[in-house]
Amino acid sequence: MNKPVDVDQLTDKLDNKVLEIEKVLSKLPEEVMQQGGLMGGLSGISLFYMYLSRYKNSEALLERAAELIESAFEILYQ
Fold it and tell me: Are the CB atoms for 39 and 76 separated by under 8 Å?
């Protein structure tokens, strides 16, 4: 027999995990912030912030994503 899903509890867990990820990303070492790649650099971090801005409906997070992608392009196309 399936247990009913507690949507509020799942939402809280998701929020907590997303905030943990954001906290880790905000403390990345400088060498990571000098890489433009998708898998281990600014492009991937920008993508995370883009989705987070939609999830949180936050213009500030969207601006952060734009700043990061601009930096990634500068690094990749020097």
Answer: no
CA–CA dist 44, 3 (Å, integer)? 36
- C-alpha count within 13 angstroms, C-beta hemisphere, residue 8: 0
Q: By the 8 A CB rule, do 37 and 22 touch? A: no
The pLDDT score that the predictor gives to residue 5 is: 82
Helix (H, G, I), strand (E, B) or coil at 6: coil
Contact 42, 75 (CB under 8 A): yes
Contact at 8 Å (CB) between 26 and 48?
Answer: no
Write down the pLDDT at residue 32.
81
Q: Copy the structure tokens of residue 15.
A: 């929020």
Residue with tokens 């281990």: 40
Q: pLDDT per residue over 38-62, tens digit each?
A: 888 899 999 999 999 999 999 999 9
